[in-house]
C-alpha cells in the first residue's frame, strides 16, 4: 500500500545563513510511503504529518540533509511497517 503526502507547508528554522537561524521560513514537505498493509494495521498519515512537522520545528536543523536523515530515522523507527520511504523537503523562498 502507498500513501502520499504532498505540499505540506509550514514554517520552521532550517538553514545556515544568519537570517535562517532567527526567522522561521516556509518549507514544503512531500512524502511517498509504501508499507505492508494488513487489515486493521494501517498507517495514520495525520500522525505521520504531526510527527514530521514537530521534529522539524523542534530540532532547528542547519542542513536540509540533516533534516531528511532525522525524518527518515524517526519515521522508520516509529512505523516499522514502512517498506519504502521517499522524502522531499524544499525551502522555496530561500533564493
Tell me the helix content.
25-40%
Number of strands: 3
Rg result: 14 Å
Quaternary structure of the protein: single chain
Briefly note the structural class of the backbone: alpha+beta
Overall pLDDT, averaged?
Answer: 95
Characterize the biggest β-sheet: 3 strands, antiparallel
Are there runs of 5+ residues with pLDDT below 50, and where?
A: none
Question: How is this fold's topology laid out?
Answer:
Layout: E1 2-12, H1 18-22, E2 25-35, H2 45-59, H3 64-78, E3 82-90
Antiparallel strand pairs: 1-2, 2-3
Helix pairs in contact: 2-3
Characterization of the model:
The chain is α+β, with helices and mostly antiparallel strands. 37% of the residues lie in helices and 33% in strands. It has three helices and three strands. It has helices spanning 18-22, 45-59, 64-78, and strands at 2-12, 25-35, 82-90. It has a three-stranded antiparallel sheet, with helices on one face. Helix 2 (45-59) crosses helix 3. The model has no long low-confidence stretch (mean pLDDT 95).
Write a brief structural summary.
This protein has 3 helices and 3 strands, in the order E-H-E-H-H-E. It is α+β, with helices and mostly antiparallel strands and 95 residues long. A 3-stranded antiparallel beta sheet has the order 1-2-3, covered by helices on one side.
Task: Give keywords.
3 helices, three-stranded antiparallel beta sheet, alpha+beta
Amino acid at each position: 500500500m502507498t500513501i502520499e503526502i504532498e505540499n505540506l507547508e509550514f514554517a520552521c528554522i532550517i538553514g545556515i545563513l544568519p537570517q535562517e537561524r532567527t526567522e522561521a521560513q516556509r518549507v514544503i514537505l512531500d512524502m511517498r510511503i509504501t508499507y505492508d498493509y494488513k487489515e486493521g494495521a494501517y498507517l495514520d498519515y495525520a500522525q505521520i504529518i504531526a510527527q514530521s512537522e514537530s521534529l522539524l520545528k523542534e530540532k532547528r536543523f542547519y542542513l536540509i540533509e540533516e533534516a531528511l536523515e532525522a525524518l527518515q530515522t524517526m519515521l522508520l523507527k516509529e512505523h516499522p511497517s514502512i517498506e519504502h520511504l521517499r522524502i522531499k523537503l524544499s525551502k522555496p523562498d530561500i533564493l
